[in-house]
Write a structure and sequence with these properties.
Distance between the termini: 44 Å
Number of strands: 0
Oligomer: single chain
Radius of gyration: 16 Å
């Protein structure tokens, strides 16, 4: 998968509009649209902002199949094989559950960062 597909999957994973992702990346929603269609690629500064916001590695955005990390799928742990052994219905349920757990962890990490930022300002 390309950067375009990774960005689109990331945005859909977090249920964001292109405008919302654009605000996170510090660009226009038109820029996000061109990234997702593959007509343009984001600059490293935008990738950095996205990776910091979602607590993911830049490589998750840049590398082929980087989107797997959004779902907690890591080739090193052979999770792909485990998912392939499930029926399509159960595979979908497992991915949805992984998605929900990751969203919870990311939300907690963001809240923790926000609390630390708040304490610095006080």
């Amino acid at each position: 998968m390309s950067i375009a597909e990774n960005i689109k999957k990331l945005r859909e994973y977090y249920n964001l509009s292109q405008k919302e992702l654009a605000e996170i990346a510090g660009v226009t929603n038109k820029a996000v649209s061109t990234w997702e269609t593959g007509n343009n690629e984001p600059r490293m500064g935008a990738i950095q902002k996205i990776s910091e916001h979602f607590h993911i590695k830049k490589s998750d955005i840049i590398e082929d199949f980087g989107w797997k990390s959004f779902y907690g799928i890591n080739n090193e742990n052979n999770n792909d094989d485990k998912l392939q052994n499930l029926s399509p219905e159960n595979r979908e349920k497992a991915l949805e559950y992984i998605h929900l757990l990751n969203m919870l962890e990311n939300k907690q990490a963001i809240e923790k960062d926000n609390n630390l930022d708040f304490r610095k300002e006080a």
